[in-house]
Amino acid sequence: MKEQFDAVKMEVPFADYLKILNLRGLQGDPELGGDCVHQIQILAEKLKAAGYKVSFIPDSESNHWALLASDGKREFYMDPYLLHHDPVDISDLKEVGTKTVEALPVVDEKPTKIILTRTRDGFNISSHMHRSRFLQYEMVWESKYDLNRRSKEIYAGEDGNPYFHPRRLFNIRVPFENGEVMKLTWMIANGAREIQVGVMGPDPKSSRTFHEQDKFNLEMEGLVQRIGTTVPRLISTLSAANDLYQAADPEMIRERMRKEALGILEKL
């Protein structure tokens, strides 16, 4: 089970924009990975081939999905997006109440902590990343799962499409064997593209300003070499998703940008 989980966690990057291409009849390069649904679908096939029973479970408050697998005796939770080290045995969670497991990224030699807390009908999950010697750990993710909602298949949300929700940016997250996780952020915009890339942590390297262009180029090269693509290929794919997303609902995009502009003015 750990072998299959590690294979997906380390070799199928999380990228939340490729579904937009798929919905328009286009395909992104396989090495670019996919969203949480894409990751757990690949994981499910690997686990089924190894003889495990698999079901899927949606976050009660978002479009996120995770996976549950059974070896016939115990049940395990897996979420490649959260990059926890091992499948988490939840069979005794009702008795123990909470469990804490380690995950990537490792920041200043401090691994990220994933905390599972039993609830009446399931469990909650929170991810805590180490920020600094002074700030210590900060919660960066939270999910809530109802075990009564587990399913043999992944179903669409109430709008019939769980992937095209309003967003400000696209993300790619790529783990490295040394414990680092690189993250690329593409700000959705009509004009100039703002791209940030760097190692996740308390002070992520994330600029594309003129005086730091060399640093940006080094970070991009490290990212694309890890996933086996090229910078032009990655940028062209992101640009295509950006344009398709805006074309899908231009009025929503304009309204979002208007609200963001007003929010900036209010802070001046």
Molecular structure report:
This protein has 268 residues and is an alpha+beta fold. It is built from seven helices and twelve strands. Helix 1 (2-11) runs antiparallel to helix 3 (36-49).
Output the strand order for the largest sheet.
1-10-11-12
Mean pLDDT: 85
- Termini, distance in Å? 53 Å
How many beta-strand segments? 12
Structural class: alpha+beta
Shape by Cα distribution: globular
Largest sheet: 4 strands, antiparallel
Strand content: 25-35%
State the share of residues found in helices, binned by percent: 25-40%
| Unreliable residue stretches | 158-163, 204-211
Instruction: List SSEs in N-to-C order.
Output: HEHHEEEEHEEEEEEEHHH
The radius of gyration computed from the alpha-carbon positions, rounded to a whole number of angstroms, is 19 Å
What's the total helix number?
7
Keywords for this entry:
alpha+beta, 268 residues, globular, 12 strands, 4-stranded antiparallel sheet
Question: Quick summary of this structure?
Answer:
The chain is α+β, with helices and mostly antiparallel strands and 268 residues long. It contains 7 helices and 12 strands.
